[in-house]
Amino acid sequence: MTIANDRELVIRGLRVAPAAHPDLEILQGIDLTIRKGETHAIMGPNGSGKTTLSYALMGHPAYVVTGGEVRWKGYDLLTLSADKRSRLGLFLAFQYPTAIPGLSVASFVRSALNAKLQGIDKNPDIDPTDTTRGGVSMLDFRRRMREKMALLKMEDSFATRYVNDGFSGGEKKRLEMLQMALLRPKVAVLDETDSGLDIDALNVVAHGVNTIAQPSGMGVLIITHYQRILHMVEPDRVHVMYEGRIVKEGGPELVGELEDKGYGWIKDEVAATA
Questions:
Q1: For the chain, how far is it from start to end, CA to CA, in angstroms?
Q2: Can you give the pTM of this predicted structure?
Q3: Which residue among 25, 99, 245, 248 is least crowded, i.e. fewest CB within 10 A of its CB?
Q4: Domain that holds residue 30
Q5: Would you say residue 2 lies in a domain?
Q6: What is the dihedral of CA 68, 70, 74, 77, to 10 degrees?
Q7: For position 119, what pLDDT does the model report?
Q8: Helices 169-183 & 105-122, crossing angle to 10 degrees?
Q9: Residue 121 — very low, low, confident or very high, per pLDDT cuts 50/70/90?
Q10: What is the CATH number of the domain that holds 106?
Q11: The CA-based dihedral angle spanning residues 19, 22, 28, 31, taken in that order and rounded to the nearest 10 degrees
Q12: Rounded CA gap, 15 and 145, in Å?
């Protein structure tokens, strides 16, 4: 069994298949370690398994784990429900966030924060550095929210709008970054959060990572098949995924190489070693 300390999310030999077809594996043995304060990028062509990895980490019921392990803070994450993984400090920013008409941003985020803090109250080992137990008062929440919204350059009226209802792409990403800022996860997974964004919306995501995640020592995993966000948020390590496996790794210079050559040479290298 792999031993992981409190500063590492360790993925070893992870194999995942659709729940409807457990014999058709999408991920075929993923090995990855994300340490505190590190920013990692996973790139690769469409259909390589990048989004499957993010969903499997959070326990999405549409996927089943057929092998491997994920260790974090002494726990085997694969044995825990999605809400418990979240309380342990794992956060997922979706590619396509869901709209919830009738539920205000403020109510939504406060409910999420209280759910996390109530989990801490039941199990103090989850986050002993957070002194809030059992929930946050309305006054304290408003203070926290105003502070983070100012940092993310958001107007106060945003808090009263309904969650993602009629939001532009950039506004949806601002809400994802606001959740990340208030929930203070230990590891944030951004699943193709740059997909389909214009340059202004992309700047929102980059600003959130650069001002919220990196200064706090948060581990970040950016899943993308574009290079442009990685010019705004420089990763410590870059991993290329192809056909359910990580087939190449390197530093930020690998982003430029992929930009120049595309993914064709990666496919050729894999074919040559098969």
A1: 29
A2: 0.87
A3: 99
A4: 8-273
A5: no
A6: -110
A7: 59
A8: 30
A9: very low
A10: 3.40.50.300
A11: 50
A12: 39
Q: Is residue 3 part of a domain?
A: no
Q: 175: exposed, middle or buried (C-beta count within 10 Å: 0-12, 13-18, 19+)?
A: buried
- The three-state (H, E, C) secondary structure of the chain, written as one string: CCCCCCCEEEEEEEEEEECCCCCCCCEEEEEEEEECCCEEEEECCCCCCHHHHHHHHHCCCCEEEEEEEEEECCEEHHHCCHHHHHHCCEEEECCCCCCEEEEEHHHHHHHHHHHHHHHHHHCHHHCCCCCCCCCCCHHHHHHHHHHHHHHCCCCHHHHHCEECCCCCHHHHHHHHHHHHHHHCCCEEEEECCCCCCCHHHHHHHHHHHHHHHHHHCCEEEEECCCCCHHHHCCCCEEEEEECCEEEEEECCHHHHHHHHHCCHHHHHHHHHHC
Rounded to 5°, angle at Cα 34 from 231 and 245: 80
Q: What is the chain's mean pLDDT, rounded?
A: 87
76-116 per-position pLDDT tens digit = 899 999 988 988 889 999 878 899 999 999 999 999 988 88
Distance CA 91, CA 113 (A): 12
Q: How many domains does the chain have?
A: 1
Contact 174/152 with Cβ under 8 angstroms? yes
Dihedral angle of Cα 15, 268, 238, 54, to the nearest 10 degrees: -30
Could you read off the pLDDT of 158-189 as tens digits, one per residue?
999 999 999 988 888 889 989 999 999 999 99
